[in-house]
Amino acid sequence: MATSTATRSDIDSSTRGSAQWDLGVATGLIRIFAGLALWRAPSTLIRLAGGSPDDGLVRGLFRYFAVRDVALGVATLASTRPGGDVTRSVTLQGLADTTDGAAVGVLVATGRLRRTQGIGAVGLAGVTALMEYAAAWKLRQQQR
Question: Span 40-50, mean pLDDT?
Answer without folding.
Answer: 94
